[in-house]
Structures are given as C-alpha cells and as structure tokens.
Design a protein that fits this description.
2 domains, single chain, globular, mainly alpha, 0% strand
C-alpha cells in the first residue's frame, strides 16, 4: 500500500519566509518590464520599483529591517544608479545623529542612572496607580530625549521597573492582570508613542520624516525647533494617564507597598556612582546644546559625537559596548540605506514628478483647514495595515508631503502634523511599532481593549494638533 509523504511547506521552496522574500523581488522586477509613466525618467521608475519592493519586504518581514535595506541598496547599485549615489545616505549627518544618540544612550543604561531615576520617582510620587502611570511616563519622556528606539527605551528600561511593581502587588498575566499590570502595560505603550513624537531623537522615523520634508518641501527642522513645535503634545502626556485610567481602570488604587519596594532597591543601589554623575552631566549638556544649536551654531550631530566622546574618555562606556550593540549598527544600515535610496530618487526627479501628477488629479480650491484635516487622515488611517513604523513613514511620508506641496498648505505646520501623527498613530494597533508585540506578548492586555484605547489616543492627538496645535504654530510664526 502506497503512502503519501507530506513535505512540510516550511521546508519547501514555497515556505512562508521564501514567499515573503520572493514577492517583493517580483514586485520590484515589474518596474523593469512595465513602461515608465510619461514625464518620468526610466531610471527613476526602476529605482522607485526597487524602493517600493524594499518597503514591501519590510512590511512582509521576510528579512530583518537592516537585511531588507541591504538588499535594496545592493539592487539599486547593481541595476540602476552608481552605488555611490545610494551610499550617500551613510554620510548624512541626520543618520549619524540617530546612530550616535543610540551610542550615548548605552551610557545612560549601563551606568544605572536610568534605573536610579525611575526608582527615585516611584519612591517620591508612586502613592497610587494613577501616580505610577505618570511616574513611568515621565521616566520614559526623559529617556526619549536620547534613546530613539521604543523597544530599547521601554522594553529595556522602563517596563522592567513596571514588572517589579507588578511582582510586589501580585499582578500576573494569568493571575490578577487587571489589578495593575494591564493598566500600566497598555498605558506605557500609549505614552511612549507620544513621548517618542516629542523629540527629534525620540524615534528614528522622526528624522526620516524631516529628511523627506526637506527634499520635497524645502523645510529645515532643527532639534530645538522640533521640540518647540511639539509643545501641544505635552498636553497629551497630562491627559492620557487619566483617560486610560478611566477607560481601563486598575483594581488597585493605592499602592504604598510599591514605594517601600523602590526605597529598598535604592538602598541596594547605594550612593550615586561616578559613572552615573558623568552620564547625567553629559546627558544634560547634550540637551542644552541641542536646544540652543540655532544660537551656538554647534551642529546637533557634533553634539552627540562629543557626548559619546566624553563617555568613552571617562569609561562610562567602552568601545566593546558600542561594538556589541546590534541596535546601533542595525539602525545605521536601514536608516542610511533608506536616506540613500530616497536621495537617489530625488536626484532623478521622482518627487518633482509625483508632485506634478498629484497636482493634475487633485481638485482646486480646497480650504486650508480642510487640507490639514486631509493631511491628518492620510498620516493616520493607513497605519492600520503597517506592522512597521519605519516602513509606514518611508512609504507614506513622501506621498503626503507631495500632497502638501501641491495644495500649497503651510509647509512647517503640515510637516509637524504629519511627523507627529505618523508616530502617535502607532497606538491604533498592537503591531504599529516594534514595542507593541513585545508588550502585547506579556499577556496582560486584551486586543480589543488595546485597539479601543489606541483609537481614543490617536483621535485625541489629532484633535489637539488640529486645534491647539494649528493655533499655537500660528502664534509662534510657523505659518
């Protein structure tokens, strides 16, 4: 009797991973056989195909982000443009600002300063569940100034503090999750997306947004200007803990035992170390120089380099720490590659062509406020289908900024509206940013609750920026 031999699909040519790699390559290849649209150079059309295929590979997650970008850069250099035109992204100061900021954050983490600050805040203000929400949010906010990755910031530093709190109050994923763990878990994600939007170095894609805005709209955004423009967003940090507290209330309201836990851990840490002091002073110095760069004329990237130099000279961090940081080199590859590909597209006139096309198809006479509403919706709604914030910004930011160019909407308010909401809209789902799966995977929060809260947070942010934000930007002279 014959037997049917079943071959697992994961071992065959059509495995899930293989398809996730093959489909983007096939998609990019179509641009080499389909005729370029009228008015667009053939090279620009082919390069856009490679760019789009690379973004699709990011979305499907057949390869890690850095690997997908490496494939795209290699294909562009081999098939369309000189490799030097793509590698220009790795000489961009914007790329190095984010990379060196991550290096500097290693000192913040390794010295133990971040943990000490968190414990001090918990000991001082952690009297209630709501108070703990604000304390952890403020801790995350401080880290967002120099740590541009949500998984590293919350997953590596803030959430471990929260998990210590859960242990003290007996709140586990499958045993009393609503006692406190569920509230703080979902709150931390919501707060982190807002915190990451408030600083240019808060999220890697923030710098990608301003790079696209510079290429398409001609705007120039410094670290200081970004934080000045983001002032209305700080209102969100005040409102969100209370809103989540009402929507998804913890069973515990008073948590005095948590303060006792923090006090004991502070005693265990002992007195402040030399490395913590040096790390803290360096951190404050960099913040001051970043905020005053328009006055001092000291480049923000140079400031980051100086910060890391101080930490290396004082042994706060060692080169081995930097060399071992996969996050640092991964971001260098994907960020520099994306910037390089977009720069090559810009050089070939792709974004100018896209602006002309959009101008031909859009109706005339759209009011300014209506235009801003459309811009906000374009920055938010597509995020539902993107599991990667990087892929989302790389895909839609050029399109939205081209729309801004066509409509004649005020450039700076539109730039900030897009940049802020693209990050904050990560709250819509539990997969909108790399931190989401990490926190969702703890098992504390139900998906439906997460999505409801995320929709509320995104809606609130949109309303704040379309009302208070636009008025504020008008007052400070951005339009």
């Amino acid at each position: 009797m014959s037997q049917t031999i079943k071959i697992p699909i994961t071992q065959g040519l059509l495995s899930g991973r293989t398809l996730k790699i093959f489909i983007p390559i096939l998609f990019a290849a179509l641009f080499f056989v389909v005729q370029a649209p009228k008015g667009l150079e053939v090279e620009a059309w082919k390069l856009f195909g490679i760019f789009a295929g690379t973004i699709l590979m990011l979305m499907l997650q057949g390869l890690p982000e850095a690997s997908a970008i490496f494939v795209g850069v290699s294909a562009a250099g081999l098939l369309v443009v000189p490799i030097k035109d793509v590698l220009v992204g790795y000489t961009d100061t914007t790329v190095w600002l984010i990379v060196v900021a991550i290096m500097m954050s290693l000192g913040f983490r390794k010295s133990g300063l971040a943990k000490r600050i968190g414990l001090i805040l918990i000991n001082a203000f952690g009297k209630s569940s709501l108070g703990l929400g604000y304390v952890l949010g403020v801790t995350d906010l401080m880290l967002a100034t120099t740590i541009p990755g949500a998984p590293a910031r919350v997953g590596g530093l803030v959430y471990p503090l929260a998990q210590g709190i859960f242990e003290v109050v007996g709140s586990k994923p499958h045993e009393n999750p609503r006692r406190l763990g569920a509230y703080l878990t979902v709150l931390l994600y919501m707060m982190d997306m807002v915190a990451g939007s408030l600083f240019l170095t808060g999220m890697g894609p923030n710098l990608l947004s301003i790079k696209f805005a510079a290429q398409i709209l001609g705007v120039k955004v410094s670290w200081g200007l970004w934080i000045v423009a983001a002032v209305p967003g700080f209102l969100l940090l005040i409102l969100i803990p209370y809103i989540v507290y009402k929507m998804y209330p913890p069973e515990l309201t008073l948590v005095n035992e948590v303060r006792e836990m923090a006090s004991e851990k502070l005693k265990t840490l002992g007195s402040t170390t030399k490395k913590e002091i040096v790390g803290g002073v360096t951190f404050l110095l960099c913040l001051i120089l970043w905020a005053t760069s328009s006055i001092t004329q000291i480049d923000t990237t140079l400031v980051a380099f100086l910060g890391v130099t101080i930490m290396l000279l004082t042994d706060v961090i060692q080169w081995k720490d930097i060399a071992d940081s996969k996050e640092t080199w991964g971001i260098l590859i994907w960020f520099g590659g994306i910037i390089g590909l977009s720069s090559a597209l810009d050089k070939l006139g792709f974004f100018r062509w896209l602006t002309v096309v959009m101008k031909d198809v859009l109706p005339q006479g759209i009011g300014t406020f209506t235009t801003f509403v459309i811009i906000a919706l374009l920055a938010i709604i597509p995020h539902y289908v993107f599991p990667s914030l990087l892929g989302y910004v790389a895909t839609f930011a050029p399109v939205i900024f081209s729309f801004v160019a066509v409509t004649g909407a005020p450039k700076y308010p539109a730039t900030f509206l897009v940049a802020f909401l693209m990050v904050i809209s990560s709250t819509l789902t539990h997969y909108g940013n790399g931190l989401g799966p990490l926190l969702m995977g703890t098992g504390y929060v139900e998906k439906i609750a997460w999505w409801k809260i995320g929709f509320t947070v995104t809606t609130l942010a949109t309303i704040v920026y379309l009302t208070i934000g636009l008025a504020y930007w008008k007052v400070i002279g951005l339009w």
